[in-house]
């Protein structure tokens, strides 16, 4: 059951990176917030890549890497901006929309079909997103919907989930044309390197300030690396559907961080909404594809 441990670790590292960045880097811009884990994960990625055996590479691998890059960038920056400006308990649960969107993008790009369970799973996620924005002081039926669209963090994470759904499909192709661990290391070395250079060239980050927080930065970098490594190895030894479904535990872990470290409000209601979204995500991943 090694894949179960790896799935839970991936969820833990994913949620922990967001919470860590919000806790210790929220005084910086969202560009600097994004720069930190990308920059400090590079030593871990490069060291691991050096020891990963190079598989037989398909000629189209570079095509899928290029196609994946912009969607990963959009998803990542939307996520960083969302956790920078809004509560974790309102933003992280929206990652549950990723498998819902994957059903749609999978149907378009991979000729995968949507069954009854997929529709039920999407319905659970929609209900969860509604519950997430219930305000006990406002009993109007449409208030949660209005609140969701007024909360910039929720909207940004919604678009992050949409971008990640495309990234998941294109990344799957990249894995098929190489190997999970090799592709994971190679892609994020390229992705991190390009984003780091772009942010420095366009003067969006103050590198000196980030370097002064190297100890905190290394923790964020290791969390990102841990997520990538656990996910890549997990995909290699288990079915992707099982791993992704358990990885959505990062939603509940984020709720726990929100309670422990950020004293966020309405956590009971948001936890109920998050459970609905997590359930919908699991239904889609395990039964809806």
What does this protein look like?
The protein is mostly helical. It has one domain (2-287). The protein is 80% helix and 0% strand. The protein has helices at residues 2-25, 30-51, 61-85, 88-91, 97-109, 116-132, 143-150, 152-176, 180-201, 207-212, 214-237, 240-247, 250-261, 267-287. Helix 1 (2-25) runs parallel beside helix 12 (240-247), helix 2 (30-51) runs antiparallel to helix 9 and helix 2 crosses helix 11. The relative contact order is 0.24.
Total tally of structural domains: 1
Order of helices and strands: HHHHHHHHHHHHHH
Please state roughly what percent of the residues sit in beta strands, choosing from under 5%, 5-15%, 15-25%, 25-35%, 35-45% or over 45%.
under 5%
Radius of gyration (CA) equals: 18 Å
Overall number of strands = 0
- Which structural class should the secondary elements be placed in? mainly alpha
Our measurement of the CA-to-CA distance between the termini, rounded to an integer number of angstroms, reads 23 Å
Largest sheet: none
How many helices does DSSP assign?
Answer: 14
Shape: globular
Mean pLDDT: 87
Query: Percent helix among the residues?
Result: over 70%
Which regions have little confidence, pLDDT < 50, spanning 5+ residues? none
